[in-house]
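User: two proteins, same treatment. go.

Assistant:
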Amino acid sequence: MDKRDLENMVISVVKTVYDPEIPVDVYELGLIYNIAISDDNEVKISMTLTSPSCPVAESLPAEVEAKVESLEQVKKAIVEITFDPPWDKDMMSEEAQLELGFL
């Protein structure tokens, strides 16, 4: 399996994680900034939250990490939280903006 296929699998599983306050998955919300896959299939994800005081600041990244690690092909998953750049609604996919009535 090449990195592109694995990245697509990671994205698919990340799309099963939802922000509990917004009925859209974290990927479509634009909370995932980067997915890096090493040669030995360790996955490093850089993500943000809708706000630094987000009530799921502890559980949401842990859920993303656990779901990615559940993929048989992934050796290890590490999720790092960043607030640079700060998240705003323009980072959402068109699908998410439509779902939430921003378009």
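Protein 2:
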Amino acid sequence: MTGEPRTVGVEEELLLLTPQGSPAPRAREVLETAAPGDGPLEHEFMEEQLETATPPVRTLADLADALRAGRAGAQDAAGAHDARVAALATSPVAFTGTTVSRVRYLKARSHFGITAWEQLTNGCHVHVAVADDDEGVAVIDRIGPWLAPLLALSANSPFWQGGATGYESFRSQVWSRWPTAGPTRVFGSAAAYHQAVETLVATGTILDEAMVYFDARLSARYPTVELRVADVCLDVDSAVLLAALARALVETAARAAAAGEPPPDAPPELLRTAHWRAGRSGLDGDLLDPATWRPAPAHDVVGALVAHVRDALSDAGDLQDVTDLLGALWSRGNGAARQRAWAAASEGDLAAVALRAADGLLAG
């Protein structure tokens, strides 16, 4: 790397809504008429979704501007079709998803059944630059224990099909049904990683390499590690916080690998359990402490995460921003907590929750 902070970019999947707050299957129309100024907008699996992406940037201020511009562009494009955009990881309102009419997506719908039919979920994928695949795999081998706290911070999907789920991130439950989703073993080398991917594709269970949905993976399109564990964040500040911590995790892991430090002893079954627990209780209960694999208050585990990456945050000039953003998050709650509060205030009107999220698309 150059000595400057690693570049970081964020892909956000966003929910299209009708003016009444229900999912709106209008992605095709929106994308057909989107103007160049609306930014890089793409299809996702369902017609009720849009995806935006920031360019790679080095400062958190630039990232916040790019995220806000992407969300504003998506809203402008959707508005031309009487639709709204919300950063919600699942729809609070019941839905029947509409698969995008592309051969690959339709094949996935046929092949995977209800797992694909119900896949109206929105994640946030953070891309952090790495020097090459060897460094990228060394990073993937070392960051697994800290991904569950990122899910807890971003949790933004407490409702599903018109009702409460008891989960802070029900998206993570729905997403985990894909055969390759979740944590991975230690690979040890780029060659071993690529061999594992080739073997998964060769099983015929998944359609192609793009369906290798590891919690952290080498990007097929960019020279990055892609962290895929998070819900799309309700507000811009939470997305910036997520990206800052993700970049610091990658930098910390790369430094540890360069120093010859071995990967942590983190069996996939423990990583999967930590992930489940983060999706269940978010920041409102205990998480698993990566140092002991025992339950500890979420505040303490998040504090341990910040301590783990403190040097990288400081060297990037992000430590004070992360401290401030975390303080604000603890004060207001993550997206799931705010959605539940809005539902209570509206006497259970989940369409009102969705519309309130759309109102706050550019907040933070």
